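Standup, Tuesday
Yesterday: got the pipeline producing structure tokens again.
Today: sanity-check two examples.
Blockers: none.

Example 1:
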Amino acid sequence: MIATLRYEFAMQIRRPSLWIVYGLVFAVIVAALDYASLDLGLNDTHVPRRAMATAAEMLVLLLPMVYGCMLADRPQRDRLLRVDSILDATPTGRTARLVGRYLGACAATAVPYALAYFGRVLLYVVVEGKPSALGWATLFFLGSVLPGLLFVGALAFAGPLLVPPMVFRVLFVAYWFWGNLIPKDMLPTLSHTILTATGEYVINAVAPRSLEYLPGDLEYAEDPPAVLDFLRPEATPAVALLWVGLMVALTVALLSVVRLHASRSES
């Protein structure tokens, strides 16, 4: 498993298209959302906790789409290169190879994402002189970003078993907008539910949005009712932990499906 992990990581991290696509999408985020300054009209962007949460929220809009699309062709690579039978002859089992391939490819694909996030964090620390931002950034990355990436990675491994990788990429981008980004009252959607992979429950539990407003601005109109509101509990630490558990459970379930498909292919 470790050997497969190291090999998959090295292959994926050296992939030119990985850096090119990430770079193009990151440029869109910087240009459209003013990511360099983190200025979204908030009153407390100088508070490290809220600033790091805002940075995580900006990147999760588009970068997970790049992450999932860049992983879509990894599961079938051995078969396309016709080396799967050779690998089956080695002492390593399919489960160990699957786990190693998944962890290695996902880790490498997450490197540009992490650089985009923590690069902005280091800039914030230098400009604002607040090293506590590093701790908050690490918490948000591990707690809100990483579980979602684990799920997206497993989905990218399982999806191409049903449709070709190119078709999966198109469907995955459509899913990301429908199930994670669009307003919940626009049409029936998984957006803003406990099944959303954006990590918003962790962010809102740790850095509530009320921190963004001055005391005189805390009056809001109630959100209109929407379909699947029962899957939209209030963001509390307990719900945030529940969300993390759901992402891990869905990841394990999807990888189990991939392994089961491999077992049937053997027979």
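Example 2:
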Amino acid sequence: MNSLALDQAESLRRMLAPRVTRRIAVVASDPGAGATTVALGLANALAMQGERVLLIDEDRAGARATRLAGAAPAATLDAVLGGTATLEAALGQRPAGAIGVLPASAQASGDLQLLNGYRTVLNDARGDAEGALSQMAGAAHNLIVVLRAEPASIKAAYACIKQLNHLYACRRFHLVVNAAASDAAASAVLGNLARTASQYLGVEASPAGSLPLDPLVARSAALGRCVVEAFAAAPATAALRRLATGVAAWPLPAATAENRSTPPATPLAPPATALA
């Protein structure tokens, strides 16, 4: 089945599914892992399937997701949740069918139901020095941890999962390898990390997919655009569209950061060879 037919089938299935706003936080294992690439690409891939998608950009310094989306928001998420701006006014002018993008600070807080006009709300999240997330990211239904197939990034991903499990009692994570040399290499990394997290942390870290090492990602960024929009036939675009198709099957847990239980006791540390 070609990509157009897949998109049409997925769009029909989503239209018939219950209208629930899914909140997804995308977290980098370490700086440069590619959380913005995944968050922005996934947002555009979901929009291609007919969803109304809102992307929250917590990179207040670089605002990379906002720039690559070509967005010109008139206000921030802080203003929307604080009641000083409506959501549609804050989003500003944008083409029909385009994703909505809002910048946000880590301090943004308020009634997240104000965002329920969107089918999916994606958060390009930024943790603080202790690994804590914003209210918006911490209250996500699903957490994506983005890493690279490199030893330092893999160990940082394990540390990120451990910290989020401790801070928020998160029990389920979705893993994405960015800039993978091959599908086999990505699968080996994801499988090993998933087993280690299950054994030593007692959490489910599910492999969600991988993006290939694709020069068109950097090329699209140089053009000031998202790879999904700039290069429809790019290998990274195909990977992001596959990731988007799988999102609907992810569980929507009732317990988020708003009502999670007390963090569990400190888990065991894995031996150094477990993450090799």
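Quick observation on example 2: DSSP finds eleven helices and seven strands in the chain. Residues 257-266 have pLDDT under 50 and may be disordered.
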